[in-house]
Specification:
There is one protein chain. By secondary structure, this protein is α+β, with helices and mostly antiparallel strands. The chain has one domain: Lambda Exonuclease, Chain A, CATH 3.90.320.10. Helix content is 37%, strand content 29%. The protein contains three helices and seven strands. It has helices at 7-24, 30-43, 89-102; strands at residues 48-50, 54-58, 61-67, 71-73, 77-82, 106-111, 119-124. It has a five-stranded mixed beta sheet, sandwiched between helices. Helix 1 (7-24) packs across helix 2. The longest helix is centred in the N-terminal third of the chain and has 18 residues, at 7-24.
Amino acid sequence: MKELLFKEETYRIRGACFEIYKEKGCGFVEPVYQECMELELSLQGIRYLAQPRLQLEYKGQPLKSEYIPDLICFDGIIVELKAVSELTDEHRAQVHNYLKASGHRLGLLVNFGHHPQIEIERIIR
């Protein structure tokens, strides 16, 4: 059986997400969850970068456009936050593009807007 990529780190990030959902529930806008996530990750001692800018290129040439994922945790896990009633393929594609742009292999798509529970999807490149 294959070992999960970033198993322990993912477990810790998921725990932070569950803690926020337990405290705030659904119904807030994404920036509220972004701020809560940054606070909770700090409280739990989880290394992260908030909204880092990813340089894009085309045929080896840098583009002016940048991608800005919500978080990169443990120097290798993209965490994209949503506050929508249902995740869509566009949300999943966004995480795939962040993974491609960053070179990272694992992304977590976290939806705080779903009721009655939080949605968390693992996306692997």
